[in-house]
Amino acid sequence: MGGGWVKRVVVGFEIRKGKKGGGWVKRVRVRKAEMLKQHRELSMFVRRTIKTHEEARIRLSKTYQSFVAAASSHRELGFIEKDVRNYITRKVQNIFEEDNAKEFRKHLVRMKEKNQNFFFELNLEGDHCIKHAFWADAKSRAAFDYFGDMVSFDTTYNTNRYNLVLGSFVGVNHHSQSTLLGCVMMKNEDIQSFKWLFEC
Fold first, then answer.
1. Which of 14, 98, 125, 197 is 20 to 30 A from 173, comparing alpha carbons?
2. Judging by DSSP bridges, how do beta strands 119-125 and 129-136 pair with one another?
3. How confident is the model at residue 94 (pLDDT cuts 50, 70, 90)?
4. Which domain holds residue 78?
C-alpha cells in the first residue's frame, strides 16, 4: 500500500487509513451524522404510506424510491431503505396477520351459519395469529362417509404470505378420482400440531 490512503465509507462516517511517519493513522470525518441509527426515524406519515403501499402490494424498493423522489435525494430522508424493510417485517405484517386471522375466523363462522354441516376448528396464538385451523365443508364430509376407506394426508405446501403449512386430506372416489375431504393450516409441523389436528 505504500504511504497511500485507503478510503472506506461506512454509514455516517468516512474512515481513511494510511501510513504517516512509519505508523498507521486513522482519520475519521463525520459525514451526515443524522443518518446514524439513533438519529433515524419513520414519521407517522411515512408509516401510513408504507402500510398503504404494502396493502396495494407495491414492492419495498418502489416505496423507498417514492420517498427519495419526494425528498429530492436519499440524503434528505431521515431514514434508509433498511428501516422501511424492518418496519414492514415487524409492524405491518403483524397487523395484516392479526386482521386476516380475524377475517378468516369470521369467514368460517359465516360458512357454518350458511350450512350446519360445515365443520371447522380454529386455534389462534394469543387470539390474533393462526396456529392451527381445520375445515371441511358439507360436500367433503359426505364424501368421507362414502370414500373414507383410504385417506391420504399431504403437507407439502407452504402458503407464501404467512409461512403456514397447508395440508389436505384426500380420498379416492368410485371413479378413481381424487376428492378433497378436508384442509388444514398449521404454524409448525410438530407433534403437538398433529395431535391437535387428529383430535379435531
1. 197
2. antiparallel
3. low
4. 7-94
